[in-house]
Amino acid sequence: xxxxxxxxxxxxxxxxxxxxxxxxxxxxxxxxxxxxxxxxxxxxxxxxxxxxxxxxxxxxxxxxxxxxxxxxxxxxxxxxxxxxxxxxxxxxxx
Length: 94
Fold this sequence. Notes:
Layout: E1 4-7, E2 10-14, E3 17-25, E4 42-45, H1 51-54, E5 59-66, H2 67-73, H3 79-93
Antiparallel strand pairs: 1-4, 2-3, 3-5
């Protein structure tokens, strides 16, 4: 069976601008990593498991970042997700 994963892109508009919620993965590999280590909440899920539960993966921290901070902290492979969000939100404002 193909592996499946689920994720949540959580954002809010604050007085200071767009903010993104990112999580820091737990475990020894990630313990001392910061820039390029944060992620959107996500995870693989098994057959019969709820996708939402999988998106709330084992993490050691979660915090709100400004959009610019998030771009520097998110794992590089997920950066296009943030860029697409910014584009969609800009199109809505037009």
